[in-house]
Amino acid sequence: MQRIDLDETQSAAALALSASPNSEGASWRVSADGAGLDFGQEKQAPFLTLHCVLAKDSAPQLAVIRNAQSQPGAKALFAVLGNGITARLKLDATLSKSAGWRWEGLYPASAPELDVFTGQRDIEATLPGAGTLKIAGSPLPREFLGWCRRGGVAEPKAEPKAEPKEVSSPPPAE
To answer: What pTM does this model have?
Structure first.
């Protein structure tokens, strides 16, 4: 049996929880390497990253990265709601070279739950301990996810529709 001071437990738990980030004015932008999208404030670390993983001998994958502190070995469900879809994405604590422990999940780019990012309406994404991230609607994630699903190939340009030619009828016979 071990004695635990409840006051210490509550204060440690409060420190582990982060407030919801202020995403007012945040937007989507293409990442520096061109293979991802970052959602965040201008000139600051992104709150959320979608990164396309392309390999020669495998189907495209999408890494969903919630740039919030995590603990080694932790796992969580990242609830993403919007555009008529509710997705629960499994994320694991992953050690990054530059940002320490953060949340990351890797999905086949064709996974239907990723469609939550393809609408143009606002999205709310909640991660236990890291608060709720409010994401303004944008067509950019839809275009990016389509590009990733096509294996990094640009969308084919639609050929302009040919206008119907007027058929002239022969002059009336006299």
So the answer is: 0.77
